Amino acid sequence: MSLAVPPLRITDPAAFGRVAVLMGGTSAEREVSLQSGQGVLEALRARGVDAHAVDGIPALVEAIRAGTVDRVFNILHGNRGGGEDGVVQGLLQALGVPYTGAGVLGSALAMDKIRTKQVWIAEGLPTPRFARVPPGGDLRAAIAKVGLPAFAKPSCEGSSVGAARVVGEGDIANAVGVARAYGGEMLVEEMVVGDEITVAILGDVALPSIRIVPAGEWYDYNAKYLADDTQYLCPGLDEAGERAAAGLALAAFVAAGCSGWGRVDLMRERATGRLLLLEVNTAPGMTSHSLVPKAAAQVGIDYAELCWRVLEQTV
């Protein structure tokens, strides 16, 4: 499967002005965001961009007030002080400051796994069956409705934060404890037996898929950010599968109101070969273990150029 990557639109780093690399914040994904942000900061500076680290939304507001920000590379992750839920996007839009990634609607919707799935279902796009559990709701009843095996996870967190794997009756008590500790709305989702696939989106191009093969039983936080034995196969599918995954990922991305860049996670059901949508990430990780840089490298885009391409979408 050949992929046409458009040429760079901007060649002069001065065209970006002063760039705030927005990282850290106060969400549950702060540490991952700091790692991502440091990588982006170093890459942009290496290409001559006047880039500066800004930790969290209050610091960004102060920098904008001081007149030291012309645009924002948003690499905050998560919600509640993360910048992936539409809040910082609304702030920047109101202030007229260009920023990377999806806008207010796409960011807010994609942060909420349940509402994203509802939109996909309305659009006729495939996603595993699920049940919504309101704060303090009956998680056991939702698991019984969906059936085992299943995942129970917060509707509005990422990076597998707060996710519980429920394979048998003995796992339910742990899942209930996780839900009680989280306190927010939970998603109980059918566990699809098959291959985990992710497709990075850059502009209107779907990059080659990555098939994730963790050493453990599932792709948890440790496998994503800490382990060195997780395998990433890129491209992850044969030619026909690549076309199908790219088309579905782009359709899901657009249906969720997203734009700019991001990542769509899917499962390929082993028994049927069906592709099923899991979620959209509107500010994906950019650490040494992250997936978007791996997919970009497959088509000859190194890490620094990837950061440049994301940033040039703001001009």
UniProtKB/TrEMBL annotation:
Domain ATP-grasp positions: 117-312
Metal-binding among the record's keywords?
A: yes
Q: Which domain of life is it from?
A: Bacteria
A Gene Ontology biological process annotation?
A: peptidoglycan biosynthetic process
Enumerate the PROSITE patterns for this protein: ATP_GRASP, DALA_DALA_LIGASE_2
Q: Where does Mg(2+) 1 bind?
A: D265, E279
Write out the entry's keywords from A to Z: ATP-binding, Cell shape, Cell wall biogenesis/degradation, Cytoplasm, Ligase, Magnesium, Manganese, Metal-binding, Nucleotide-binding, Peptidoglycan synthesis
Catalysed transformations (reactions)? 2 D-alanine + ATP = D-alanyl-D-alanine + ADP + phosphate + H(+)
- What does the record note about the cofactor? Binds 2 magnesium or manganese ions per subunit.
Residues engaged in binding Mg(2+) 2: E279, N281
Catalytic residues of the enzyme: E29, S159, S290
Cite the Gene3D superfamilies for this sequence. 3.40.50.20, ATP-grasp fold, A domain, ATP-grasp fold, B domain
Q: Which pathway is recorded for this entry?
A: Cell wall biogenesis; peptidoglycan biosynthesis
Molecular-function annotations in GO: ATP binding; D-alanine-D-alanine ligase activity; metal ion binding
Location of the protein in the cell: Cytoplasm
Q: Looking at the UniProt record for this protein, which Gene Ontology cellular component terms does it annotate, in alphabetical order?
A: cytosol
- Which PANTHER family does the entry mention? D-ALANINE--D-ALANINE LIGASE, D-ALANINE--D-ALANINE LIGASE B
HAMAP family assigned: Dala_Dala_lig
What family is this protein classified in? Belongs to the D-alanine--D-alanine ligase family.
Q: Which NCBIfam families match?
A: D_ala_D_alaTIGR (TIGR01205), PRK01372.1 (NF002378)
Question: What this chain does, per the record?
Answer: Cell wall formation.
**Per its record, how is this protein called by name?**
D-alanine--D-alanine ligase
The species this protein belongs to is: Luteimonas wenzhouensis
Q: What is the lineage of its organism?
A: Bacteria, Pseudomonadati, Pseudomonadota, Gammaproteobacteria, Lysobacterales
Q: Which gene encodes it?
A: ddl
